[in-house]
């Protein structure tokens, strides 16, 4: 999607660069109004798609986090129940507590790792989306400034 936006911006820039210069004026030009308005409309319709994509990424991250927490809770509950069943004998109780702590510790480590990986993925994807949007916005501002200057 970012490629489509960049392509639209490049088309706008190309149109301005190739436009006829007005006589006795080096900073004013003539462009096809309808073509330019069409390009701007296409750009407007493309930007919300990028924003929706970023929101979908955040939603998927939240789903992954919730799923990991549910899995952790389920594992924790299962191990606690297993430990309770083993309470009947002293040696088994000590071994069970040790094993339960180890399993819960491993499950928590896995959950933290899953959260960290999900956060990194989302952060990276959102960062790339943000950079793409920033580049697009910057190009739009430059194009707008050129149009504004050309109209003067």
Secondary-structure class: mainly alpha
Query: Which strand order spans the largest sheet, edge to edge or round the barrel?
Result: 1-2
User: What gyration radius follows from the Cα positions, in whole Å?
Assistant: 29 Å
Helix content: over 70%
Shape: rod-shaped
Biggest sheet layout: 2 strands, antiparallel
Please, how many domains? 1
Outline:
This protein is mainly α and 152 residues long. It is 87% helix and 3% strand. The longest helix is centred in the last third of the chain and has 62 residues, at 90-151.
Question: What would you say this structure looks like, in words?
Answer:
The protein is rod-shaped and about 100 Å long. Helices cover 87% and strands 3% of the residues. The protein has one domain (2-151). It has a two-stranded antiparallel sheet with strand order 1-2. It has helices spanning 2-18, 33-85, 90-151, and strands at residues 20-21, 29-30.
């Amino acid at each position: 999607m970012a490629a489509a936006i960049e392509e639209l911006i490049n088309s706008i820039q190309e149109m301005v660069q190739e436009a006829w210069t007005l006589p006795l004026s080096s900073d004013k030009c003539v462009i096809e109004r309808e073509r330019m308005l069409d390009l701007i409309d296409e750009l407007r319709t493309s930007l919300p798609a990028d924003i929706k994509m970023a929101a979908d990424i955040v939603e998927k991250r939240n789903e992954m986090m919730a799923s990991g927490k549910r899995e952790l809770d389920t594992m924790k509950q299962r191990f606690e129940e297993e430990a309770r069943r083993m309470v009947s004998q002293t040696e088994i109780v000590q071994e069970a507590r040790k094993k339960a702590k180890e399993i819960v510790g491993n499950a928590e480590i896995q959950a933290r790792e899953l959260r960290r990986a999900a956060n990194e993925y989302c952060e990276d994807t959102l960062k790339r989306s943000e950079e793409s949007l920033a580049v697009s916005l910057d190009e739009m501002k430059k194009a707008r400034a050129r149009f504004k200057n050309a109209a003067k």
